[in-house]
Amino acid sequence: MRIRNVVGAVVFAWVASLSVSCSGGKGDSSSGVSVMNWNLETFFDGEFDGNEYEEFRSGKSGWSREKYKVRLERLASVIRTLDCDIVVMEELEKEGQLQDIRNQLAGSFDFSGRYKYGFFAAEEGASIGCGILSRIPIDDVSVHSLSVSLGKSQPSMRPIIKATFSLGEKKLDLFVNHWKSKSGGAEESEVWRDHQERQLSRLVSDSCAAGRGVLACGDFNRSIEEFEYEKSDVANVVLKGGARVHSPWFGDDGELSEIGSYWYKGAWEYIDNFFSANAEIAEFAVCGFGEWCDSEGRPNRYKIYSGDGYSDHLPITCRIFP
């Protein structure tokens, strides 16, 4: 497996083939591959390293190793319930947490179902990054950062992870995204999300030109209505830069799902997403059920002082056929 850091800032990246006494999973294009995406909401570990968000920086904050262990147990329970081949997570703190999650899952699946492969990347000095756990071998992985000169300081922006999988004779490029949030003002931060959208568009176009299937997922911090809608036989969204992709948030009639993945100021937002190109998304689901939801099916967000809750986002899942 190769790891490449492409363009811009220095990125810390980790990848592993996690040793277990089995041969590992094999991709099968005929049955597709199931994928789960979830923003875990500030999923810090139990160590205080000084780079955490302020509310997590010391024992006085109410955060502790014990609370981290409880969050691990809850996350593992959700992963077991949704039982997807590939698990994509935003807002992990560091690479070692992938091993923590895997250890928590140990004994939960038969050997053929273990998550043997993992990858983590974050911008240097960042508090959080993104991670992948997979039952399917990762053939190749690259990390794509942005370095933009606009005459003003560029904020910290998570890089895009590109992981390539073999599914029978076909290849799937998975792009993991966590775009700039709207903190500091939606209009003021829009320029950075625009650059990230163009970056993803270039990557998607390159993969399609190489004949590979594409699935882009993550927390885009841009609700699906904010993208350019254009219905065709194979796509319904045009990314800035020209790549045409399909989002399952839109029905065949162009109407949005009634339920989103993020509840904000009394309304659903659709900021967590799957985009496909040269591939077909099936069985898309917003997982508005289970203990990670409240009685209204909204995210049961994590509360640091009481230790209650899971995340302020709902997980989403799909099956992808390249």
Detailed description of the structure:
The chain has about 325 residues and is an alpha+beta fold. It has three helices and 18 strands. The protein has helices at about 65-80, 95-105, 185-210; strands at about 1-5, 10-15, 35-45, 85-90, 115-125, 130-135, 140-145, 160-165, 170-180, 215-220, 230, 235-240, 245, 260-265, 265-270, 270-275, 280-285, 315-320. The strands form four sheets. The protein has a seven-stranded mixed beta sheet, covered by helices on one side. A six-stranded mixed beta sheet has the order 1-7-8-9-10-16, covered by helices on one side. β11 and β12 form a beta hairpin. α1 (about 65-80) crosses α2 (about 95-105). The longest helix is centred in the middle third of the chain and has 24 residues, at about 185-210. The protein is globular, with a radius of gyration of 19 Å.
Features:
single chain, 322 residues, alpha+beta, seven-stranded mixed sheet, six-stranded mixed sheet, 3 helices, 18 strands, globular
Please list the strands of the largest sheet in the order they lie side by side. 2-5-6-4-3-18-17
Q: How much is the radius of gyration in Å?
A: 19 Å
Quote the average pLDDT. 88
Largest sheet: 7 strands, mixed
Number of helices, counting only DSSP H or I runs of 4 residues or more: 3
